[in-house]
């Protein structure tokens, strides 16, 4: 069973009313309390090891060999 938040009935209730778009930022009414708050980015830690620069190949997919731009041979 899944949570009741993921049921079809909850989805229908959530979108039963009209959802109005937010207007331009110029038209926003900002209170003094909200304008003084500084929101910082979340604190994250650097991951250990070397970064993954290439995608993970699919199951059964072979690596392709690269061709050298100087000498034209494959594999180095």
Structure description:
The chain is mostly helical. It has a domain of 33 residues. It is extended, with a radius of gyration of 26 Å. 0% of the residues are buried.
Summarize the topology:
Blueprint: H1 8-14, H2 32-36
Region (Disordered): 54-76
Can I get a quick summary?
The protein has 76 residues and is mainly α. It is built from two helices and no strands.
Task: Supply the key terms.
2 helices; 76 residues; mainly alpha
Mean pLDDT: 84
Helix content: 10-25%
Say how many strands there are. 0
Q: What structural class results from the helix and strand content?
A: mainly alpha
Name the helix and strand elements from N-terminus to C-terminus, one letter apiece.
HH
The biggest sheet, with number of strands, parallel, antiparallel or mixed sense and barrel status, is: none
């Amino acid at each position: 069973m899944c949570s009741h938040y993921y049921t079809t009935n909850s989805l229908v209730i959530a979108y039963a009313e009209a959802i109005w778009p937010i207007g331009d930022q110029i038209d926003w009414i900002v209170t003094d309390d909200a304008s003084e708050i500084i929101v910082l980015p979340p604190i994250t830690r650097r991951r250990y090891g070397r970064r993954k620069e290439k995608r993970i190949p699919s199951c059964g997919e072979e690596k392709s060999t690269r061709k050298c731009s100087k000498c034209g041979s494959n594999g180095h």
